[in-house]
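Section 5: illustrative case.
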């Protein structure tokens, strides 16, 4: 059985009836959309989605930094003001 990764759930029928009401009830949290009691999709409010994308971007940037720090090149120290000019 697939885990449900949200505090709130709704059926596809409920989603069709009133998506705005579902979002309102869940606040800024994701809603698992169930089809025969199995999650088939997640309805994610835009603010939460934007946070998720930011986290993914930061994670990918951190991976790039780690890779470059371990490529045996010597890091170069710079002042922030030098980068802004």
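Designed sequence:
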């Amino acid at each position: 059985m697939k885990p449900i990764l949200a505090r709130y759930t709704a059926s596809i029928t409920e989603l069709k009836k009133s998506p705005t009401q579902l979002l309102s009830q869940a606040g800024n949290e994701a809603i698992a959309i169930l089809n025969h009691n199995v999650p088939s999709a997640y309805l994610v409010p835009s603010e939460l989605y934007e946070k998720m994308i930011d986290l993914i971007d930061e994670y990918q940037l951190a991976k790039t930094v780690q890779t470059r720090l371990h490529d045996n090149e010597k890091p170069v120290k710079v002042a922030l003001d030098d980068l802004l000019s």
